[in-house]
Every structure is written in C-alpha cells, then in structure tokens.
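Exercise 7. Given the components listed, write out the predicted structure of the assembled complex. Treat all entries as one system.
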Amino acid sequence: EPEVTQTPSHQVTQMGQEVILRCVPISNHLYFYWYRQILGQKVEFLVSFYNNEISEKSEIFDDQFSVERPDGSNFTLKIRSTKLEDSAMYFCASSETSSYSNQPQHFGDGTRLSIL
Amino acid sequence: ELKVEQNPLFLSMQEGKNYTIYCNYSTTSDRLYWYRQDPGKSLESLFVLLSNGAVKQEGRLMASLDTKARLSTLHITAAVHDLSATYFCAVVSFSGGYNKLIFGAGTRLAVHP
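Answer.
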C-alpha cells in the first residue's frame, strides 16, 4: 500500500539553527499538509498546500516557517531559526482530493524534532 | 473557530468490557475521522464518517456520527489488550474551499486483564 514517507525520523538541532524536514507524499495525491504534535498533546494543523501554493496556515505557522515542493515529489517544511518550543513530532499528510470526500488524509511516520 | 473535545482523556478498561469514547465539536461539519496512534508512531486511519447517521464498524470498534448533535462516538466491544492505544477524532474544517483537520485531545486507552 502506498505510504507517505518522512525523513529524517529524528532530528536534533541547536536553537537558532535552520532545519528542513522532508516528506514524500503518496504519488497521486494533490493536497499536502504539515501537522505537529508536542509530546503528550494533541495534533495541531500547521499548513495546507495545493497547486504549488499555501492554501491555509495556522497561527503557529509564522514567518519562521516555510513550505516548498521543489521537484514534484518532495514536500518540505523549513524552520528558519529554531526555538526550544519548536520541539515536537512533525507529521506530513497527503490526500488525493480535498477532505470533502471519502478519502482520509494519510499520515507519515513523523519526524521527531529536538531543539537543544 | 472549530473546537473539538474528546472524553474521557484516559480510559483504563478490563478485557472483555464495553465502553464508549465521545467526540463533540463546536461548529457545523459533516466530515469526521477517527485515528489510532500507538506510542511513538504515526496516525492510522480507522474510520471516515461522511454524513449524518453514518455508522462504521471494524472488528471490536464501531463509530457513529450525529451531525445535528455535533457528536461522534467510538464504541469498543469486548476490549482486548491489542486495542491499547491513543484514539483521536478529527473534524474537517473548511475554509475558503480548502480544508484542514482539527483534532481532539485524544483518549489514551489501556486495556488490562
């Protein structure tokens, strides 16, 4: 069964450094998302992406965050200058259509980001 | 702004017992998903509920959706240890033609002998 793949599985970074999290969505999917989950808390929406542009972003997704689909297969989340509070599990998700359908969003295994 | 509340947040069950997890949400939506998460793992889609009155069953789990009451339930029948996990409901929020999932806080289920 096709999967959303994320790399790396664990990223340790010094505060203030830039980090790029990578995702390969399922190949025929058109909608892409990033969510994060701080340890022990709920999953929070960060950003949705469609047709090579951001369709919606949350308050968490400030100027330090950016997303890109550089080559038609990868979907990346960049944090420009990391803060301690960015430590979380980051999930990439993709869906074939918008969620106004019977298709759920499929989630990757996540990247655990630890900021020191 | 759409808010999603789950209860209980923690549930300790004996094997063989039945229980229900509740998911309430604050504004109109007719799309709701249930996900399962094992510790340190990703989110596994369990059920997609697309309309009022939808009921889906898979093994010992059954999910339902009442859009008028803005309530979904996940019923566990004759629990077994393998069901121990955290269960999240997620409601689809539409905005400007696009969508996102708003998650509940999750219910951590522990099934013991």
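Discussion: Chain B touches chain A at residues 31, 33, 35, 41-45, 48, 50, 88, 90, 92, 94-106 (CB under 8 Å). The CA atoms of residues 94 and 100 of chain B lie 7 Å apart.
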